[in-house]
Amino acid sequence: MAKKQQSENEDILSLANSLRWELGVDFHDTVIESIYADASRIARKTVRTEGEKPAYNWDFKIDRIVTSRWLGFPIMFLLLAVVFWITVSGANYPSGLLAELLIDTLHPVLKNGATAIGMPWWLSGVLVDGAYLSMAWVIAVMLPPMAIFFPLFTLLEDFGYLPRVAFNMDSLFRRAGAHGKQALTLSMGFGCNAAGVIAARVIDSPRERLIAIITNNFSLCNGRWPTQILIATIFIGGAVPAHWAGLVSAGAVVGIAVLGIFFSLVVSWGLSKSVLRGETSAFSLELPPYRPPRILQTLYTSLIDRTIFVLWRAIVFAIPAGIVIWLVANIHIGDLSLAEHFIRWADPFALFFGLNGVILLAYIIAIPANEIVIPTVLMLTVLSTGMHEMGEGAGVMFELDSIADTENILRAGGWTLLTGLNLMLFSLLHNPCSTTIYTIYKETHSAKWTLVATLLPIVLGLIVCFFTAQLWLLFFSTAEAVG
Amino acid sequence: MILNIHPGLSILAGILVVAVLAWAFWPKNGLFALIDRLRMNSRRVLLEDALKYLFDCEYKNIDCGLHSIAGNLNISADQATKLLDRLRAMGLISMKDQSFQLTDSGKSYALRVIRVHRIWERYLADETGIDQMEWHGAADRKEHRMSAEAADALAAQIGNPVFDPHGDPIPSAQGELPEHKGRPLSSLEEGAIARIVHIEDEPHTIYEQLVALGLYPGMQVYVLDVTNGKITFAADGEECVLTALFAASITVEELPEQEPLSTKATLLSTLKIGESAEIVGISPHCRGQQRRRLMDLGIVPGTPVTAELRSASGDPTGYRIMGATIGIRKSQADFIFIEKKEKHADEQPA
Amino acid sequence: MNSQHDCENCPVHHRENLIRLGIAMDRVDYVVALAGNPNTGKSTVFNNLTGLRQHTGNWPGKTVTRAEGGYSYGEKRYKVVDLPGTYSLLSTSTDEETARDFILFGRPDVTVIVADATRLERNLNLVLQVLEITDRAVLCLNLMDEAQRNHIEIDERNLSAELGIPVIPAAARQKEGMPELIAAIGEVASGRYVCQPHRLKSRSPKLNHAVSTLAEKLAAQFPGLPNLNWVALRLLEGDQSIIDAVRTGELGKLSTGILSPQS
């Protein structure tokens, strides 16, 4: 009985196949056309439009301005610049407050508490100096900018402006073999790459979505801005006359961000010409009517859906990394800690790329969040140079209020203008943070593409740093640059 | 120390390393691509190509001798004899009065290879936008390495197509294939109206020129004149002249009662901002997902469309279609045919 | 504001009757699927019904994973499943597959189609496609406020007669029309309102022949299937999930349960 039924089922399928061969190629068109024919008949019977359309005209007027040849791009850059400016300047104060609470106040309290209850030094080191402190750093540095950036971005999205950005930017991305909506994932990436990767869902073609995901890391995320600003202020700003310092260092940071966009487009182009070949498949973009965003709901949802979501993932990765950071600085083999061994071993290799061993180690162990790279660099520099009067001790990340003090530590660690420049480049061009890597895996379900997205930027970064360093050495005196 | 190397030298070395890396990963002629190609078992390729060719001969009722096989596979007659001996030993072909015939297992093997080939061509046509000149070559390589299961999975993903982009039927997973139908274009008489059902993609040089003429399966042809072995016909309203040799590469299906299409439509991309028109259709070159997406957005014959705004960078244009503004790239608007309306027809009352 | 007040006295609105259940759905009586084009306020309707706050941007396909929520009304518990916003149900994209398969195989008791009243013709494309699959649907004509501002008038009664399903005008952002929508869902779910969905007729003779040949075969093999022509058409389109359902005989299960509410 079941056998018979099964063969009858197969008969139906083979009948369907032969009918399809008879029908020929394009009957799908007939189906859709007949649906639309019915739809338009029903609509004609039931819908009546009277007079002019004020709301539509209003939309139309806004669209005329934001997509105009002369004003379209200036408006876009202005709006995005305002969003970044509010983010960067607005995050300073709450970040400081959080750092004061979590790092300056709570950390010593916990440390003392651990000692008071008789916890062995290594355990309190792992838990308080390692796990707790890295979590505290991530929260203090990551939360405020995200809590500002995401709602602002979501407001623009809800208002309906972002589709217009994609509309304006599309021709640029089309030439790179990508989708116009990549403009959005790219700008979202300036907030957080993990969020940018998730945002790539709006691109329906799998090929273009993959391109957007892989290249998102070239958007300089919130976590990297402070590094860029600090290093630019110390090394780039320090290399020019004082009254130019501010302008030049700001220009350098913006230059790095623009370089990121450049790489994003070039790599998109390269991918679409090689492994992800094939022209853009189905570009269509609805420009929805403008709607006033609901501020409160936007605040709530962008906080829950994006900020907390991303922050949580970052914390989950930061805790084990904090433990690792503490351990490499405190486990000794012979006279030296693991960290020092690595730094000495990697130094010559790293100097070849215009970096140093401390930077390489910092980027390896601070993989959970770009936010903890600078504290780790400072801690490792102090450790490896033996400036024990500075800092908080082995394995304890720290930052200094005074830029001058930071500069002293870095210069003592052998940093030069070249090191600073290359750190800025490497900060732009290195593997995504672990949160982003994990998110890429979640979104693509592919270990292969996750690996590509992880390794591609490092390879590029090493190449760029190498040529920068060698050209530098070629044009400027060797002795001065290496120091 | 490596730091003592002169920077000029190390820059050269760096350029070398980058060049080697780039070469290694280069998609078409790179090291990995080369290794990949070498790994392909050439004996198997030859065997499968022979089966495919024999099947094609049987399907089209052409006699295939040893020499035509050797010629088609680009091998010597000697090698062809050895190859056929091997096929016979494997039980894939049998001899019947001097000609070769596929056995059942030979036939189903050939159908599997053909199925993979045609599915892959269809996939390339529908989903990638890779140039149509490359479909056949790519599918020729793919057919030898893609498993039947992988082909089935791909087919399921793109809606189990039953025709490849040249109009050939794709064998089903169970090995069914419809009867060969249609006749060569060269056999049509003056005044005949027919639809192209297939354009043979081999030999490549002929196919290239037919494609360059803009011919495609599904196109309507109207034979205007047949003289001196040359056939003149109107294809979608445009006049073409082909020699008999070229015309033989095109298979058509006669359409007894139909009016010849004559008007060549205007393209949507020519619509100026503020102008309105009515959609007439979408070009058959716009396939697969891309075509469906456009239709889903309301681009079907009869729909009014107004060009509303141009992107700041000039390319996508926003078209007002059924109450929504849809951004469409110029490359896609080139696929959409319209008919411009009288100026006053769609103006709003002042 | 004003109309919201008015509705407190509407006969259908029993405030104490509506309890938003959020995601607490241990025991449900009816399953409601929410379909619609992108940008029609589908998520706002979803949030209004369930009390959840799902965010979806102004993009197609933002709802990539299915969102679920629930409410209780008139002693019955409803589970609402928010399907991805799509323009159509005929393509092979993941979004459309998810929506299509849920409406067919998930056998929702009611499918609510949220349509933009300012662009009804465009939205009817999806509405007609949904009506091909299921015979229990409600059309929620959202954004009526915008339509009014644009001087668009819609003859709801005529529309309801044409489509054969209840048509509820609404303005979800102002929470207008929600009580009526909830009541209509209840009517259709309980079987008090029997839908007579519009089915497509005008096709080419060649295609009609193919569809009816196949539908005949299907009717013999899977008696009682409510949407024969649509299943036949999907087979002709090479829809893998329908092919699998025919092959395994799973399709037969759809014919039994669909006429009586899910227990």
Task: Describe what you observe in this structure.
The complex is a heterotrimer of chains A (483), B (350) and C (263). In chain A, strand 3 (332-333) and strand 4 form a beta hairpin. A two-stranded antiparallel sheet of chain A has the order 3-4. The longest helix of chain A has 45 residues, at 72-116. In chain A, helix 8 (193-199) runs parallel beside helix 18 (434-444). The N and C termini of chain A lie far apart (88 Å). With 483 residues, chain A is mostly helical. Chain A contains 20 helices and four strands. With 350 residues, chain B is α+β, with helices and mostly antiparallel strands. Among the domains of chain B are: 183-254, SH3 type barrels (Roll), CATH 2.30.30; 266-340, SH3 type barrels. In chain B, helix 3 (42-59) packs across helix 6, helix 6 packs across helix 7 and helix 6 (104-128) runs parallel beside helix 8. Chain C is α/β, with parallel strands linked by helices. Chain C has helices at residues 2-7, 42-50, 94-105, 120-133, 144-149, 156-163, 178-190, 205-221, 228-236, 240-248, 251-257, and strands at 19-22, 30-36, 67-73, 76-82, 110-116, 137-142, 152-154, 167-169. Chain C has a seven-stranded mixed sheet, with helices on both faces. In chain C, helix 8 packs across helix 9. Chain C is globular, with a radius of gyration of 18 Å. In chain C, 53% of the residues are buried. The chains are: A mainly alpha (483), B alpha+beta (350), C alpha/beta (263). At the A-B interface, helix 1, helix 2, helix 3, helix 4 and helix 6 of A face helix 1, helix 6, helix 11, strand 11 and strand 13 of B.
